[in-house]
Amino acid sequence: MRELLVATGNVGKVREIQEFLRDTPFTVVGLRDKDIDKEVEEVGNTFEGNALIKAMTYGKWANILTLAEDSGLEIDALDGRPGVQTKPYAAGTPDNGFQKIFDEMKDVPEEERGAQFHSTIVLYDPANDKIRICEGIARGSITHEAIGTNNFGQDPIFRYDDTGRTGGEMSVVEKNAVSHRGKALTKVKEILLKEFV
Fold first, then answer.
1. Model's pTM, two decimal places?
2. Backbone angles phi, psi at 113, to 5 degrees
3. Can you list the positions of beta strands (E) in the chain?
4. Neighbour tally for 17: CB within 10 Å
5. Active site residues
6. Residues 2-196, CATH architecture
């Protein structure tokens, strides 16, 4: 089976992607499995830019087919923030930035709490410099409190339009069926099977 490196130190994200691709002829590994502990600075100003930087850098270091993702939470009432800055926005907070978001949205009424999770995934093959890019968007709304403890990141404060539940209330399998990452990974899976087997 061909190895596929997921270019992230986030074990929750690796687990989600392993689950999604478990029935493919790929062995999905994370940076820890490859003993890569170097950090790549995400200096892009778009999700695609950051995913490209990570895919190409880690792909060249490990010299294997690499998948990198950049994603974030875009809140309508905050003009799309935190967006590409989601990771630094939550950094150093004990709750992934939940309280910061609640504070910023304390006067926003229920009907104006719309938001979306946006994911861009890049596949990069260092053997031939082939690059493929996939996107996924999931619409929902921001809750008034954290609900559920499953998954990671901002999952407990984002209620999916498709299910009426937060990512924190869903299993990995349930979340993969409706999430931004799940939508992008559906396209990735198709491309992997068609072009990289």
1. 0.92
2. -100, 20
3. 2-6, 26-30, 66-75, 114-125, 130-142, 158-160
4. 22
5. 70
6. Alpha-Beta Complex (3.90)
